[in-house]
């Protein structure tokens, strides 16, 4: 029976590692793109509501993804939606910094350190959680 618990643990660790590697690569790719893109102040026009997954035993909570508009140097108006959520409804008219692709200004991303900070906290958390779970399996009494 214990071997089944170790197999489930290993599958969890592999899945968590795969998800974190994917998230780290996506974040790095976006940071590299944004490094060479022009940055402008965008005006928040509203938000799109969503929900957290409620994972890890936490309750689901409502999150808001700002929608915004900005103009390029030629004065053309472009719109976008942030991938970075907030707990509070963003105030329409407030300013956020975005980077946009000069070749296709319809492609824009909100400039923020939040994704990097979140990943920096999640990696050690999952490492400690995996070790604790491994220890728990080894001391779990099996009838």
UniProtKB/TrEMBL annotation:
InterPro entries: DUF3592. It comes from Pseudarthrobacter chlorophenolicus (strain ATCC 700700 / DSM 12829 / CIP 107037 / JCM 12360 / KCTC 9906 / NCIMB 13794 / A6). This is DUF3592 domain-containing protein. The chain crosses the membrane at residues 6-24, 119-140. Residues 40-108 form the DUF3592 domain. Keywords: Membrane, Transmembrane, Transmembrane helix.
């Amino acid at each position: 029976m214990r071997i089944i618990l170790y197999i489930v643990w290993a599958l969890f660790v592999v899945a968590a590692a795969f998800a974190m590697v994917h998230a780290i690569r996506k974040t790095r790719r976006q940071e590299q793109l944004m490094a060479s893109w022009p940055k402008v102040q965008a005006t928040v026009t509203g938000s799109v509501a969503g929900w957290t997954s409620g994972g890890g035993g936490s309750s689901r909570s409502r999150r808001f993804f700002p929608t915004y508009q900005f103009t390029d140097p030629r004065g053309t108006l472009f719109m976008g939606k942030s991938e970075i959520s907030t707990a509070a409804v963003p105030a329409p008219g407030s300013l956020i910094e975005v980077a946009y692709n000069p070749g296709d200004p319809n492609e824009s991303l909100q400039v923020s350190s939040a994704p990097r900070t979140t990943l920096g906290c999640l990696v050690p958390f999952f490492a400690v959680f995996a070790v604790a779970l491994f220890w728990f399996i080894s001391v779990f009494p099996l009838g």
